[in-house]
Specification:
alpha/beta; Endonuclease, Chain A; 3 domains
């Protein structure tokens, strides 16, 4: 009896000490009050489990490498003197559509990259169109290939990419492949050993040591970037996996949207890859193999915007807020995960109440149940604010897209959720082009065919147990 009491006292003391240490760390490091409250509650109310969970998932370990990451930024800044950048921005600023100067000024302050003229971007629907285009680009590479992806699953598609990359290495092309440490483990064994077996220079971004992949883990490199010869790039929402080819049978087929880019903005994507690669490996990629002189390929104004938990600029959040504030007629959003922070919810409501038509397209069936439930619990204030929400039909749609007033578009890897806004490394591209925006709106219109318009009455008509389930999932938003 005495030994049992002593063990309980020691366990209680251990939990108290762990909770104190975790709470101190939370108070000193967390910038978001909701996340701070949520983590504090967990570490105190869940003995041992709470502090251990915070240790595994709540600590922004990337801060330890901030010094090394800033070295890359310092090098980039030195390569792009402020005077040159300012002169360039003054030239392209003259070509901005009327009313968009203020947004361009905002994104200039949150991105290290200047707004560039002379770009061409085209859409590629699903893996059916994107993968053949990407493989053809790899087959045509003569100097360099840089590829970063969140998920690189084993399968038919992966085998095609490995073969194409290996062939490029064999003919003397410099190849670098960076796969997120968690995303690499969606299939076992991981693709990393296979890539290395073919002498493809490969690295893992923040390797994960846990035995089971956790889709809610923090600090993931969610970027999807392929750059060939520093002149041709691909980006968007597409991972490398068989499920994204709709022509091939799959247990969970996935729609997606990717883009092929040419012009000076390609070097923005390359710069982001070089930043990530140097952080993961220590190797600094320089020279014309990676950064050839920029060449015009069209008439579009575009800029790359990188964001991540090591940043202090909140680049993605501020870009979204700025775009909503600029809108005068329409805002069209396509996202697989819709869990915006309160400031974004308020901005969406204010935009709609100003008379702007705000359309939000999310999948009727998601691939992450907790996120699906939580976003249903969060839709009521958005709908009551006057926004229009549509549930797109199967298969699951992983596309990410925003179009404002038929003039400005945002494409890339980011979702409208806490992970993209605060916890993951993302890359998006802002585009000023009415022709490109019109083409994207055609894609949005196609997604609306057969979609279900969701109203407040639909949410209120749900069974009580569904409301409780969704509400409980919503309380977990800081962890999702």
């Amino acid at each position: 009896m005495g030994e049992t009491l002593l063990a309980e006292l020691l366990a209680g003391l251990l939990h108290f000490l762990l909770a104190i240490v975790a709470s101190v760390h939370i108070l000193l490091t967390k910038a978001d009050v909701r996340a701070a409250i949520a983590w504090t509650g967990l570490v105190w109310l869940a003995p041992v489990f709470g502090p251990v969970s915070y240790l595994l998932f709540g600590i922004n370990r990337i801060r330890r490498a901030v010094g090394r990451m800033r070295e890359v930024r310092d090098s980039h800044t030195a390569e792009h003197p402020a005077s040159v950048r300012q002169a360039q921005e003054e030239r392209v600023g003259e070509r901005l559509p009327a009313g968009w100067q203020s947004l361009a000024k905002l994104t200039d302050r949150v991105s290290v990259e200047p707004l560039e003229d002379g770009n061409h971007i085209e859409s590629l629907l699903d893996g059916d169109a994107a993968y053949p285009a990407m493989l053809a680009a790899i087959a045509g590479a003569s100097r360099s290939i840089s590829l970063t992806t969140y998920i690189f699953d084993r399968g038919v598609v992966a085998a095609e990419f490995v073969a194409a990359l290996a062939a490029a290495v064999a003919r003397g092309v410099e190849v670098r492949v960076l796969v997120d440490g968690l995303g690499a483990r969606y299939s076992r064994p991981t693709i990393l050993a296979e890539l290395r077996r073919h002498r493809i220079r490969t690295a893992s971004f923040l390797p994960v040591r846990l035995p089971v992949p956790n889709p809610y883990s923090n600090l993931r490199n969610h970027r999807k970037i392929l750059v060939v010869d520093g002149e041709l790039a691909f980006t968007g929402g597409l991972n490398i996996r068989d499920a994204c080819v709709l022509a091939r049978p799959s247990s969970f087929p996935t729609r997606d949207l990717h883009f092929r880019l040419r012009g000076p903005v390609v070097l923005h994507l390359q710069d982001t890859f070089v930043f990530d690669w140097r952080f993961a490996t220590g190797e600094h990629l320089v020279g014309e193999n990676w950064f050839p002189p920029a060449r015009r390929a069209g008439a579009m104004l575009a800029r790359g915007i990188a964001d991540g938990p090591d940043e202090t600029r909140d680049a993605l959040l501020l870009t979204l807020l700025g775009a909503l504030a600029t809108a005068t007629a329409t805002v069209r959003i396509v996202t697989p995960y819709f869990l915006p922070d309160p400031p974004l919810i308020d901005a969406l409501r204010v935009t709609a109440m100003r008379g702007v038509r705000v359309e939000i397209l999310i999948p009727a069936r998601g691939n992450l149940r907790l996120v699906q439930w939580a976003q249903m619990a969060q839709l009521k204030p958005v709908l009551r604010g006057g926004c229009h929400v549509f549930l797109t039909r199967a298969p699951f749609d992983h596309s990410k897209l925003m179009v404002v007033d038929g003039q400005w578009s945002l494409i890339g890897s980011a979702n409208w959720d806490p992970r993209s806004l605060r916890l993951n490394f993302e890359h998006v591209v802002e585009c000023y082009s009415s022709a490109f925006a019109t083409a994207l709106e055609g894609i949005v219109d196609a997604k609306l065919e057969g979609a279900q318009a969701l109203g407040v009455q639909d949410l209120e008509a749900r069974a009580l147990w569904r409301k409780l389930r969704d509400g409980a999932a919503w309380l977990m938003q800081p962890y999702l």
